[in-house]
Design a protein that fits this description.
The chain is an alpha/beta fold. The protein has helices spanning 12-20, 23-28, 50-57, 69-79, 118-131, 150-171, 181-187, and strands spanning 40-44, 61-66, 89-92, 104-110, 132-143, 190-200, 203-213. The protein is built from seven helices and seven strands. The structure holds S-adenosylmethionine (SAM).
């Protein structure tokens, strides 16, 4: 299968950092204080994986999944010389093929679900919820829903659309409005426990949502 991230993959984290003035990185680890030693934590579409490495540094048992060889190669560069309580388990696969229902204390989808058309996004979100244990957590970090007055909303939408267009051109991501992940998480039986927002240029641009499976 073609690696959609073969060109933009190596630049991914650099672009995210400059586009968000580091807010994306902060968003990706915003819920890490709830991860405990030995927790089983899965990162779907891990990319370069600063969030997965930070979880392993907290002593969690981390599994990462990604379809892109390029992204996993970058992830492995980030691992150099690092030692953890539990070695990180890496799966080069489609998240939909991971047949480990109710296995994880935490399932992360950071800046992952926005890659897909709505129908596929819902199938994948439902798989993330399935992978979490009963009472386990699903964490989604992504662009936040536009809020505020019409001018603020216009700029928030524009900000998302520029990023979406760049990744549509570079990695064939879907073109779509910002998704309401909290709504879908609730529909899939998660209780929203915490939402943390990250600001850039006067407005909230990103959020991390911690949902608990019933
Ligand atoms: C937009 S990047 C986000 C990477 C990372 N989570 C981050 O926050 O920087 C999306 C990642 O999801 C991976 N991906 C896309 N579809 C996938 C699938 N069906 N299963 C597993 N990984 C997938 C891509 O290869 C890419 O690494």
């Amino acid at each position: 299968m073609k690696d959609k991230y073969s060109i933009i993959g190596p630049l991914y984290d650099f672009l995210a950092t400059i586009y968000s003035f580091n807010q994306i990185d902060k968003c990706k680890t915003a819920m890490h204080d709830t991860i405990k030693t030995d927790d089983k934590v899965l990162f779907a579409g891990v990319g370069h994986g600063i969030d997965a490495i930070a979880a392993a540094e907290r002593g969690a048992q981390v599994t990462v999944v990604d379809l892109s060889e390029t992204m996993l190669a970058r992830f492995n560069r980030g691992l150099r010389k690092k030692e953890f309580r539990h070695p990180i388990r890496q799966l080069h696969d489609n998240i939909l093929n991971i047949d480990e229902s109710s296995s994880y204390d935490f399932v992360f989808g950071n800046f992952f679900l926005n890659v897909f058309e709505e129908e596929m996004m819902l199938e994948i979100l439902s798989q993330l919820v399935k992978l979490a244990k009963r009472k386990g957590y699903v964490v989604i970090g992504d662009f936040s829903l536009p809020t505020g007055n019409p001018v603020a909303r216009f700029f928030q939408i524009l900000y998302w659309r520029i990023a979406d267009l760049i990744f549509w051109a570079a990695a064939q991501n879907a073109l779509h409005p910002v998704y309401d992940y909290q709504k879908y998480m609730k529909q899939l039986g998660c209780k929203i426990k915490t939402v943390k927002y990250f600001r850039f240029l006067f407005d909230d641009r990103y959020y991390s949502i911690l949902g608990q499976k019933k």
